[in-house]
Amino acid sequence: FAELHAAVAGLPVASSRVLPGLVLRRDFAAYCPTGGDLRAVVVTEPLRPALSAPGVEFVVDSEGRYQASLRWIARRTEALMKHLQSNSIKLLLSSVKQEEVVIYYAKLYGVSVVECLSSEEVALICEITGVSAYAPFGDNMYREITEAAVATFCQPLLLGSKRCVHIGFTSVCAFQPHCLILCGPVDGVNKQHAAALQGAFIMLQQLYKRVDQ
């Protein structure tokens, strides 16, 4: 329920509504508008490549080598974004904050980016779409990307003064997600309404379990 409702203070209760898809309560880190269905991947690691493995010390002994290292990182990041583009990936959903170089090349190659998803949001997206997280730095960075979900739309959404991301996914299960937008004059009223609705849904779940049995 926490991932399927959003509260907006300062608006009348009558402004509450149900929206198809998911509402992520954060803004795009990069937004590249596109029409129709689009392919999306979920990542749980930084896409700026590391210069060394975890626990391995990397020593740069001159300014020239340091600048060469930065150029290598930029080239490899650009190559990854070009690979996403060649696989028709238009949306990157990340559980971690990405470096500026990643955002720069994402904009350059037409890939929208949403950062800092919670573990619950990532789990819900993976359940709806049936995909797992994409790991780009495996044995072959240039393999075909099979861990892609299909989004029917992805657009900015303004809730009060807060910019959010509104996404609709093609679901692989019977569950078709919708998000409840709860409006009220103050946060306290919204919390009361959310608690009441969550209680009602729990009661309905219990009721239908008994009917099924």
What can you see in these coordinates?
This protein has helices spanning 63-86, 100-108, 119-129, 187-212, and strands at 5-9, 17-20, 22-24, 38-43, 89-94, 112-114, 149-159, 162-169, 178-184. The protein has four helices and nine strands; from the N terminus they run E-E-E-E-H-E-H-E-H-E-E-E-H. It is elongated, with a radius of gyration of 21 Å. It has a six-stranded mixed beta sheet with strand order 3-8-7-4-5-6. One of its GO terms (biological process) is chaperone-mediated protein complex assembly. It comes from Eudyptula minor (Little blue penguin).
Summarize the entry for a quick read.
By secondary structure, this protein is α/β, with parallel strands linked by helices.
Question: Mind sketching the topology for me?
Answer:
Layout: E1 5-9, E2 17-20, E3 22-24, E4 38-43, H1 63-86, E5 89-94, H2 100-108, E6 112-114, H3 119-129, E7 149-159, E8 162-169, E9 178-184, H4 187-212
Parallel strand pairs: 1-9, 4-5, 5-6
Antiparallel strand pairs: 2-9, 3-8, 4-7, 7-8
Protein name: BBS10 protein
